[in-house]
Amino acid sequence: MKRLERILLSIIRRPVKSLILILLVFVCANVISGSIILYNSTQTIKNDIMRQILPVAVFKTLVDNPNDLSPEEWFELPKDEENRVLMDQTIKSFEEIKQLDEVNYGDYALSASFWTDQNIRLNTDYESSLNTIDSAYKHLMVYGVSEADSYYFKKGIIHITEGRNFTDEEIQSGAHVILMPSGSFFIDEKNQLTAIKPNDSIKLISRICSDRVLFDDYFNANGEEIKELDRLKVYEKHNQAVKDTILDENTVEFKVIGLYDDAHFLEKQKRGDYSREIGFSNYGGLVPLNFYLDCYQDRVKKIKQFDELGLFRDDSQKNLMRFLEYNVFMLNDSNDIPVFSEMIQEINEKYQTDMLVKLNNDVYLKIAGPLEGINSLSKFVLVVAVFVTMLILFSVSMIFIKERKTEIGILLSMGEKKGNVVSQILLEMILICFLAIGGSMLTSKSLSQKVEDSILDHKNYRIELSKEEEMMVDESFSAVELMSNYEELLDTSNMFTVSVLSLILVLVPTCVSVLYVLGMKPKEILM
Amino acid sequence: MSILEVKDLTFSYPDGDVKRIILDHISESFDQGKFYAIVGFSGCGKTTFLSLIAALDKPESGSIMYQGKEISEIGYEKYRRNHISIVFQNYNLIPYMNALENVRVAMGITENPLGDDMTRLALEHLFSVGIDEKKAKRRVNRLSGGEQQRVAIARALSTNVDIILADEPTGNLDRKSSEVIVDLLSELAHQRNKCVIVVTHDQNVAKKSDKIINLQTIGMKLKS
Questions:
Q1: Cβ contact B124:B130 at 8 Å
Q2: Over the stretch B122-161, which tens digit does the pLDDT of each residue have?
Q3: In this complex, which of B56, B78, B107 lies closest to A522 when CB atoms are compared?
């Protein structure tokens, strides 16, 4: 009788024991390969996320633009003089941070609304924008940017569609040049639109008024919203009323050097979604920060003088508050983060700015958090499963070998080589493992999928990143894509490698238990 | 020349602080075509003697020679594989196999030339001990004790060895079955020219042997 026949007989003629073994290996192989698949997939996605998270630091300051504040939080903000001092200190901190060896690039921008000499409208398709400050007639939201290649250009979120970008000299000198969003228009009294183009002029007016002039109601006597042309009249009436309260007016003519587009916004706009999640919180003109700061210093001085003369009839007109629109500092390397954090603490203490630094680690945890959970769980399950599998299989193999002691003794008494007996038992185990692991190849994928499904509701998996957090990830980052990659990985993970690994894990305890055969003496068993 | 020769065979077991000598300088020779019965009281070393000449254990001193060659030189496994077969008191058949498969397992292990059609040969050996084809294909645990011992003898015969060793082959059998087995063993020696060495308590077995070796007369010694 050939050894293979002996092996087959041993498996077939002892069906209960063989089935127990097959079932045991099947379950263990499922758990092991399932956790390997989960671990591998999550690890790959985690690495992907790491690659997409930039070595970037973003600061949360006390002078950030308070976009989503509740009224209570608004009242807690540092006001007027306190805001001015903090802004001053924050800008000094930023300039010092930009000079650090670890920093490759730094940019920040301030925002404010200026008066204009003409009606300007930013988005023709956006009817309700009339109610918002960004396209209010004779008002323009302006952002002072500190870098020629400002962050949103660098990241590719916005880009020049016509004309050119700032030069470094223009930024340094605070030149009177402006970038406007493409699709901006001048509007005349008859509501006729003229597209704003490079080389056009826009006059920005910094006004200090003594009193607040309220707008007339946008609704007519019947409670209906008034027509656009009527709104122009409302604005005109308001502007006329404002003129009577002007204490000081500084008009600066700006040359439009280029037009820019926000790719994301335009894409969303096509779908009728006008919310701006990425980029500037409000569309507006971009000017060099130094012009903006000079203008601000002048305004602070004048307001102080007028206040001393008691010219303000409404205190709100003394408002000095300015806000940071964004700040971002790209580091040379993620490894620089610890040193960078220490330096930041020193700068924070020096300028008493009380800024909170948000580093890419925080973003990583937010994005990869749920996956990290699966990853840790699968790692834990894998370690436990490997240990338990080895222990169970070692015990079961020992029990089965001891139970076959007489058979082994008979074979040895007939002169069979111990190596042949050992290899017979091992081959039996391998055959059983092949059957069990073959089965587990079919089921472990679904098992890991089910485990993943129960932990992570990937269909509703949404990663909401704040504006600061958006700055820390690569432009190509997409949570939806991330999850579809993950799904794909679960499907295409190398099942063969996983199965071979399971086979090895199953065979190791069997091999150890089979060593017991080498110490067997047929005389002690049979006589 | 004797087929198997034992010279000054000594064997002892440790028993606490003392060494219990079981076999003390035993010498004996065994010829082909003869039926030997080894007798003696319980514990006198009959089974130990058999295990030594079956190469299941190693002697403390002395030599065991097969056809004038030390069995250690032949190699214990090879000696068991090609020159001897053992019949045990409790048959020692592989329980999940049938009689035919049990015989074929042994034929698969030996390196002795046996012929091409192993199944036919195995069946012939089984027929020669009174196991028909129907019983040959029955699981061994469904055979009676006597039938199982016959299968064990057929298995011993199948490997075409010169020496057949049996340890109390009738110990678990009734009188009638015992007689059949003893006749079979005797027949192996006298008609098939095998050297049959049987360890037994059974006087009837001893009576049918050509030579009785009484280990009792050699006795047992205690050595501190």
A1: no
A2: 999 999 899 999 999 999 999 999 999 999 999 999 999 9
A3: B56
The pLDDT of A426-431, averaged and rounded, is 88
Can you say how many angstroms the Cα of residue B205 is from the centroid of all Cα atoms in its chain? 14
Average pLDDT over residues A424-452: 81
Residues 6+ apart with CB under 8 A from A201: A253, A254, A255, A256
The minimal CB distance from A413 to the residues B47, B80, B110 is found for B80
Put simply, the answer to whether A411 touches B105 (Cβ < 8 Å) is: yes
Q: Which amino acid is at A379?
A: K
Measure the CA–CA gap between A12 and A6, rounded to whole angstroms: 10
State ipTM. 0.94
3-class SS letters over A342-359: HHHHHHHHHHCCCCEEEE
Extract the tokens encoding A253: 């003519």
Q: Where are the domains of chain B?
A: 96-159
Q: Å from B96 to nearest chain A CA?
A: 6
User: Would the CB atoms of A406 and B51 count as touching at under 8 Å?
Assistant: no
Contact B56 A521 (CB under 8 A): yes
- How confident is the model over A292-302, as pLDDT tens digits? 888 888 988 99
Residue written as tokens 């994928």? A445
Residue A134 has pLDDT above 60, yes or no: no
Q: Decide: B74 and B125 in contact? Cβ < 8 Å.
A: no
* CA–CA distance, A440 with A501 (Å, rounded to integer): 13
Nearest-neighbour CA in chain B from A436: distance (Å): 23
**Which sequence spans correspond to the domains of chain A?**
3-51+366-526, 62-354
Is residue A433 within 8 Å of A503, Cβ to Cβ? yes
